[in-house]
Every structure is written in structure tokens, then in C-alpha cells.
UniProtKB/TrEMBL annotation:
Its main location: cytoplasm. Mg(2+) 2 binds at residues 266, 269, 305, 307. It comes from Aliiruegeria lutimaris. This is Xylose isomerase. It is found in: Cytoplasm. Keywords: Carbohydrate metabolism, Cytoplasm, Isomerase, Magnesium, Metal-binding, Xylose metabolism. Binds 2 magnesium ions per subunit. It comes from the Bacteria.
Length: 434
């Protein structure tokens, strides 16, 4: 146990409260579209931002002071785990997520790394016996250490590729042992700075074969969870191979991994790619690969991945609209890949950040469910494309040729006039619910 969260009681649903540490919209037991709200949202705490990040930025060092600093020993790793599970209990979180580097020191060799990871996994398993909090997903940090400066699976050095393969094996084993429901691969440095020293074809083939190995190992050990790829367009690499949903989907198809791999989509990464969050979710749902989400927001003035807690209910509502429309999460969930600002030093700040984010998501979820149940957006969309429902137009699309369609245009004197897309009316419609 630590004393970091001393004096902070478990957070309760209390719409009349004026406390910063009370839920006003997140009621775990409220039924939304046939399921408990907790089961629809499937919230998770990100271990890296909440416990491993020290408040530094490119211009200055750490600002936080935590009982588990310095994070360089197994003793401190266990103090950190104690604090983490105390926070999970305070928030009533159903899940958490972690990278290996978040939960234990790496050591001086791979053997020492493995011993440390095995030890903390055993410690987590003991903590989880008395906690409701489960593991949503695990992953390997293959971007922070200097060995990954030129990539992980895409690295020009085969020894780095081998190290990464061994690391992912250990992290998959750890995830399975802890009952994780997914395993995530995020290629934080799977990209390049300049073509002057880069073989694109070789690096892409290495990444594809690496992912095939992951799927092969999943089947060998009987891991029942989902393998997820998380796209990111830039930062730190200038050109990332996993740029967005479309890019990753083409990669999945190229290496014959359809049906084997889904996607973990982050709001902040969608924005960096020049898309909206709902666009990326809708594309993944259309391809049948929407698995899980990282919920956060970016500062739209900064132009980089600021990982702030979500505060925009309309944006969140449109995101959950796409998730609910596809039937909701299965193994996935809502991971708060979000961190405090450097000036937010206190334990209460860490709780309050999650409380507010959970309330924003709850409001967004309820708005999304209300829109789906009302059916206004779907009815408007159906009406816009209704012309394609006629037998003649279905046949044109399925069997037409340029010659036959040209003949039809001439015979029927087709001379179309544009029709309104009614965007403003639909925006007003959404605002009725948010």
C-alpha cells in the first residue's frame, strides 16, 4: 500500500454533487441499448500516462513527485502497482492497459528484462485476485530505448528485429497469463526520416513478416484475445508506415492477415492524420476491423500528440455513434490514453481527470444511443441514396458497361440536377442530442 491516494474515497454516481470527484453522468448500472453502461464503455486506465510518465516535456524535466520514484527497481515497480490498483478501485475501473516498460525496469540484459517482467506479472496477478479490474490489453514498448532509434520490426539491424520478436513473445505471454482481452502492436518508430538511407520495400516486408509471426504465436499458445494494430501518422518518425486506417488495412490485406488482426484507434492520432475520430472509426467498421479505442484529445493549436483527457461531448458522441452502430465493443474498450498537464501535480488531479473523461464519454454514449434509437441520421442517409434501390440502378452498378450506360442516358434523356446534402440540418439534428 501507498499513501498517495489517502483521503480519497471511491468515486460514486451522484448527479446532485458539486464535488470534483463525483460522477454526474457515468452510472455503471444504467442500461444503454440493452447493456449496462459499464459494459458498453469498458473503460481502462493507461498505466503509462497515469503512473510511468513523470511530467516532462521536450523543454524541461519531470514536474511530478510520486512515491514510486525513481522508477529503476523492482521494489519501486511494486509500489507503483500498489498505487495503480488503489486508483483502479477508487474509480471502479473495469480494465487497465500497460506497456512492459511502464511496469518494470528493463535491466542490463534480455534475461534480466524477462525476470523483471515475470516478477511483476506475478505481482499483478496477486493484485487482480482482490480487484474487479482486469487487463484490457498489453503491449511492448519498442520505441523509447535508443536501440529502437531506427525502428523495431523495420530496423536495418537484424539483431534489433530479433530483440523485438523476443520481447513481443514475452509480452504476449504476460498478457495471456493476466487474462488480457487483446494484444496491441503500436509501431512508434516504424517509419523513416529520409529515403536517402531507407529501403521501403525491405522494411515493409520485415513489418509484414513480424506481424505474421505474432499471429502464428497467438495461435500456438491459444491466446483467445484480439491482435490490434494502432495507427499513427507521424511523430516521431516523419513518415510512419501505419499512417491511418486505410493504410493499415492495405497492409493487412497485402500480408494475408484479414480476419486475424483488428485495429486500436486513437482520437489524437486520427487528428494528426488529417481525419476526424469518427471517420477513422467508420472506415475501420466498414472494413470489419474496429477492435478498440484510445480516448483522448489533442490541442488543435499545437499540431502534435498532446494526449489530453476528452472534454468535447459532440466529438465523443459521434465516435460512439459509429461504435454502437457496428454493435458495440466485443474484446475492445475505451482506454484513456490521456495524461495530466505538467502543472497538475496532485493525486486528486489524476482522479479528477479520469472522472471528467468518464462523464464526457457517458454523455456521448447516451447521445449516440438516442440518435441511433431515433433513427434520424440513418433515415436521412437512406433517403439520400434511395435512387440506388431501384432495380434499374442496381443492375447498372452490377452489370453495366460504359456503352450500355451511355445508351441509357441517351434513351431516357437523363439530365441530372444537383440535390441538397442538407448538412446544416443534420448538424442541427445532432445538436439536439448533445
Amino acid at each position: 500500500m501507498t499513501n498517495f491516494f489517502d483521503g480519497i474515497s471511491p468515486v460514486k454516481f451522484d448527479p446532485a454533487s458539486d464535488s470534483d470527484l463525483a460522477f454526474r453522468h457515468y452510472n455503471p448500472d444504467e442500461i444503454v441499448m440493452g447493456k449496462r453502461m459499464e459494459d458498453q464503455l469498458r473503460f481502462a486506465v493507461a498505466y503509462w500516462h497515469s503512473f510511468a510518465w513523470e511530467g516532462g516535456d521536450p523543454f524541461g524535466g519531470r514536474t511530478f513527485d510520486r512515491p514510486w520514484y525513481p522508477q529503476d527497481s523492482m521494489a519501486m515497480a511494486k509500489v507503483k502497482a500498489d498505487a495503480a490498483f488503489e486508483m483502479f478501485d477508487i474509480l471502479g475501473q473495469p480494465f487497465f492497459c500497460f506497456h512492459d516498460a511502464d511496469v518494470c525496469p528493463g535491466g542490463e540484459s534480455f534475461a534480466e528484462y524477462k525476470r523483471n517482467l515475470d516478477e511483476i506479472v506475478e505481482y499483478f496477478a496477486g493484485k487482480m485476485e482482490s480487484s474487479k479490474t482486469k487487463l484490457l490489453w498489453g503491449t511492448a514498448n519498442m520505441f523509447t530505448h535508443r536501440r529502437f532509434m531506427s525502428g523495431a520490426a523495420t530496423n536495418p539491424d537484424p539483431d534489433v528485429f530479433a530483440w523485438c520478436a523476443a520481447t513481443v513473445k514475452e509480452c504476449m505471454d504476460a498478457t495471456m497469463k493476466l487474462g488480457g482481452q487483446n494484444y496491441v502492436l503500436w509501431g512508434g518508430r516504424e517509419g523513416y526520416e529520409t529515403l536517402l538511407n531507407t529501403d521501403l520495400v525491405k522494411e515493409r516486408n520485415q513489418a509484414g513478416r513480424f506481424l505474421q509471426m505474432v499471429v502464428e504465436y497467438k495461435k500456438k499458445i491459444g491466446f483467445k484475445g484480439t491482435i490490434l494494430i494502432e495507427p499513427k501518422p507521424q511523430e516521431p518518425s516523419k513518415h510512419q508506415y501505419d499512417y491511418d486506417v486505410n493504410t493499415v488495412y492495405s497492409f493487412i490485406k497485402e500480408f494475408d492477415l484479414e480476419g486475424e488482426v483488428a485495429m486500436n484507434i486513437e482520437q489524437g492520432h486520427a487528428i494528426l492524420a488529417g481525419h476526424s475520430f469518427e471517420h477513422e472509426l467508420a472506415m475501420a467498421a466498414a472494413f470489419g476491423i474496429l477492435g478498440s479505442i484510445d480516448m483522448n484529445k489533442n490541442d488543435y493549436q499545437s499540431g502534435w500528440d498532446t494526449d489530453q483527457f476528452p472534454t468535447n461531448v459532440p466529438e465523443v458522441a459521434l465516435a460512439y455513434y459509429e461504435i454502437l452502430k457496428m454493435g458495440g465493443f466485443t474484446t475492445g474498450g475505451t482506454n484513456f490514453d490521456a495524461k495530466l498537464r505538467r502543472q497538475s501535480l496532485d493525486a486528486e488531479d489524476l482522479i479528477a481527470g479520469h472522472v471528467g473523461a468518464m462523464d464526457v464519454c457517458a454523455r456521448g454514449l447516451k447521445a449516440a444511443a438516442a440518435m441511433l434509437e431515433d433513427g434520424g441520421l440513418e433515415a436521412a442517409r437512406d433517403a439520400r441514396y434511395a435512387g440506388w434501390d431501384s432495380a434499374a440502378n442496381k443492375d447498372m452498378l452490377a452489370n453495366g458497361t460504359l456503352e450500355s450506360i451511355s445508351a441509357r442516358v441517351m434513351a431516357e434523356n437523363i439530365n441530372p440536377e444537383p440535390r441538397s446534402g442538407r448538412q446544416e440540418r443534420l448538424e442541427n439534428y445532432v445538436n439536439r442530442f448533445v
